[in-house]
């Protein structure tokens, strides 16, 4: 019994030690970025070697990098552009993907399984395979260097349709049948019964759409690189210039673009976990 207790304590110590190491490994770069954003640019790598406490703790606090970021480089414009693109994509994406998932889950129509198989297949196609045809299509529609070029291609997604379909299939059909007998339209059934019962799924899908758009770089770089529609990920590349890299501004921008999404995620993480792990309702 004593051996078992010692073994259990030893295993727990090793386990928590590895978890602590992993947490430090993840947090340390973020901490370094934050501290580098509030120190003078000339001191960012001054104490990098030899490794010491001054590597992470600034000897002098300066907000010059943030001032330069928002005043000299007008970072607020790409920040607003990104928020607008993300918000519109989330609203349109939730509406379209939820309706598609509802149709696949609750309606019978010819070609349903073939069509859903095509939706699943889109999840396996890498973006690089469709980037050139998508660019050509946006060019023909005169959508290049507009917010529409960033929003519309990201609205429909097989992953979110699959997520909604599974969630709606787990809701008993008897609820819809009862509402239909009482005279409710299918739209009323969808909005007043199915949507309220799948709020965690809605939050999960919304967060996934938001983060996908927020971190998107390749497509915005290709389709909307004009200064007036530039998003944050593309704007970050501006600080890597021909004569050098503006590390202070890069770290300041990195802090801003990291903190803002977390402000949305932390209040909703409970619903996100529920949406990912929920098993739904059973008949």
TrEMBL record:
<feature type="transmembrane region" description="Helical">
    <location>
        <begin position="9"/>
        <end position="32"/>
    </location>
</feature>
<comment type="similarity">
    <text>Belongs to the binding-protein-dependent transport system permease family.</text>
</comment>
<keyword id="KW-1133">Transmembrane helix</keyword>
<dbReference type="InterPro" id="IPR000515">
    <property type="entry name" value="MetI-like"/>
</dbReference>
<keyword id="KW-1003">Cell membrane</keyword>
<dbReference type="InterPro" id="IPR035906">
    <property type="entry name" value="MetI-like_sf"/>
</dbReference>
<feature type="transmembrane region" description="Helical">
    <location>
        <begin position="246"/>
        <end position="266"/>
    </location>
</feature>
<feature type="transmembrane region" description="Helical">
    <location>
        <begin position="114"/>
        <end position="137"/>
    </location>
</feature>
<dbReference type="Pfam" id="PF00528">
    <property type="entry name" value="BPD_transp_1"/>
</dbReference>
<keyword id="KW-0472">Membrane</keyword>
<protein>
    <submittedName>
        <fullName>Carbohydrate ABC transporter permease</fullName>
    </submittedName>
</protein>
<keyword id="KW-0813">Transport</keyword>
<dbReference type="GO" id="GO:0055085">
    <property type="term" value="P:transmembrane transport"/>
</dbReference>
<feature type="transmembrane region" description="Helical">
    <location>
        <begin position="149"/>
        <end position="168"/>
    </location>
</feature>
<dbReference type="GO" id="GO:0005886">
    <property type="term" value="C:plasma membrane"/>
</dbReference>
<feature type="transmembrane region" description="Helical">
    <location>
        <begin position="189"/>
        <end position="212"/>
    </location>
</feature>
<keyword id="KW-0812">Transmembrane</keyword>
<feature type="transmembrane region" description="Helical">
    <location>
        <begin position="79"/>
        <end position="102"/>
    </location>
</feature>
């Amino acid at each position: 019994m004593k051996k078992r207790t010692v073994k259990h304590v030893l295993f727990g110590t090793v386990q928590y030690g590895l978890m602590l190491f992993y947490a430090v490994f993840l947090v340390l770069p973020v901490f370094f970025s934050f501290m580098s954003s509030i120190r003078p640019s000339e001191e960012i790598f001054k104490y990098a070697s030899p490794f010491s406490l001054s590597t992470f703790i600034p000897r002098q606090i300066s907000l010059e990098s943030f001032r330069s970021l928002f005043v000299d480089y007008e970072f607020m414009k790409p920040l607003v552009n990104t928020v607008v693109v993300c918000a519109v994509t989330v609203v349109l994406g939730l509406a379209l993907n939820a309706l598609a998932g509802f149709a696949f889950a609750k309606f019978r129509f010819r070609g349903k399984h073939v069509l859903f198989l095509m939706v699943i297949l889109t999840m396996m196609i890498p973006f690089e395979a469709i980037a050139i045809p998508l660019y050509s299509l946006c060019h023909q529609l005169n959508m290049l260097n507009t917010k529409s070029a960033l929003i519309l291609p990201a609205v429909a997604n097989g992953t979110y349709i699959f997520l909604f379909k599974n969630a709606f299939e787990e809701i008993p059909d008897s609820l819809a049948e009862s509402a239909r007998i009482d005279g409710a339209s299918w739209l009323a059934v969808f909005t007043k019964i199915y949507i309220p019962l799948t709020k965690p799924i809605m939050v999960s899908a919304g967060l996934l759409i938001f983060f996908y758009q927020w971190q998107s770089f390749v497509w915005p770089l290709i389709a909307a690189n004009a200064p007036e529609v530039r998003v944050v990920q593309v704007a970050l590349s501006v600080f890597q210039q021909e004569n050098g890299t503006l590390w202070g501004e890069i770290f300041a921008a990195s802090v801003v673009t990291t903190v803002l999404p977390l402000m949305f995620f932390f209040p909703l993480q409970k619903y996100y976990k529920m949406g990912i792990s929920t098993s739904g309702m059973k008949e």
